[in-house]
Amino acid sequence: MTDPRFICSWSGGKDSCFAFMEAVRQGLRPVALLNMMNENGEISRSHALPAFLLQQQAAALGLPLTAIASTWQDYERNFTETLTRLAQQHQAGSAVFGDIDLMPHREWEEKVCAAAGIEAVLPLWQEDRKMLVYRMLQAGIRCMIVSCNAHLGEPFLGRMLDDVLIADLEAAEVDVCGENGEFHTLVVDCPLFTAPLTLPAYRKVEHDGYWFLQWETAAHP
What are the residue boundaries of the Diphthamide synthase domain, all occurrences included (predicted)? Predict the structure, then answer.
């Protein structure tokens, strides 16, 4: 890879953040963040995060964030078109993704990057899931569970990732990295942020068998 500039596929959670940090540690240079929102553009597709929290993260990293509203049906086309535009705009040679070991995800990421004329970079690929979580903590990532399945349920929402939570996830027989979709996180601080996020109040809601934090947005029109 000749060009060190990269676009990060940014979910707002721990995996994309740590992949971002690892790419920077390896000498790559971030130029933009890309997130896919639901069709009305109100919350992110992957983690149900409102745009103002993603914008806070982008501001803390000093990078522009492109958040694209999309249906699932048009997801690949919209992602590819946006990635192509951003790569040209920022003269980026790669896109960074936080996937660990799900091959269909990697194949899709390599496909869309090839269509955009850039390289897919997966800094966390095939790392041990549990060791990765401990490495994230040691690297200074602070994150909280913002959504989880019914097996974990309401009590796990809003909890910060730490040794106690890791033990509780293992006791619940859940992958501690959440790689199977058991839970998703929001990074509230990391060493590359200029300041931690300011979090609004939230309430816990259940929708189609999955629990979410629903953030108060009145102060963030």
Answer: 7-217
Closest among 187, 152, 157 to 170, alpha carbons compared: 152
Helices 75-90, 103-116: inter-axial angle, 10-degree rounding: 50
Q: What is the DSSP string of 130-165?
A: HHHHHHHHHTT-EEEEEEEETTT-GGGTTPBPSHHH
User: For residue range 120-143, what is the model confidence (pLDDT) as tens digits?
Assistant: 999 999 999 999 999 999 999 999
Q: Do 65 and 154 reside in the same domain of the chain?
A: no
Domain check: are 178 and 134 in the same one? yes
Q: How many folded domains does the chain comprise?
A: 2
The pTM of this model reads 0.94
Query: Rounded to whole angstroms, how far apart are CA atoms 210 and 85?
Result: 34
Domain assignment present for 147: yes
Q: What is the pLDDT of residues 2-33, one digit of tens each?
A: 679 999 999 999 999 999 999 999 999 999 99
3-state secondary structure of 40: coil
Rounded-to-integer distance, Cα 57 and Cα 188, Å: 8
